[in-house]
Design goal:
It comes from Clavibacter nebraskensis. This is Nucleoside-diphosphate sugar epimerase. The protein is an alpha+beta fold. It has one domain. It contains 1 helix and 2 strands, in the order E-H-E. Strands 1-2 form a two-stranded parallel ribbon. Strand 1, helix 1 and strand 2 form a beta-alpha-beta unit. The longest helix is centred in the middle third of the chain and has 12 residues. The mean pLDDT is 85.
Length: 45
């Protein structure tokens, strides 16, 4: 499944950003982040 994608909803919130950080730490690729406030995306890893 080389083209798998994971959507993280609320990725700029407390839980969502922790999930994103852990997913990146584990080497996951194909991540997508959904957020209501696009300006908060700049602070993500």
């Amino acid at each position: 499944m080389d083209d798998a994608r994971t959507l993280i909803i609320g990725g700029t919130g407390t839980v969502g950003s922790a999930v994103l950080t852990e997913a990146l730490r584990r080497g996951m690729t194909g991540l997508r982040v959904m957020s209501r406030d696009a300006q908060r995306l700049t602070g993500l890893p």
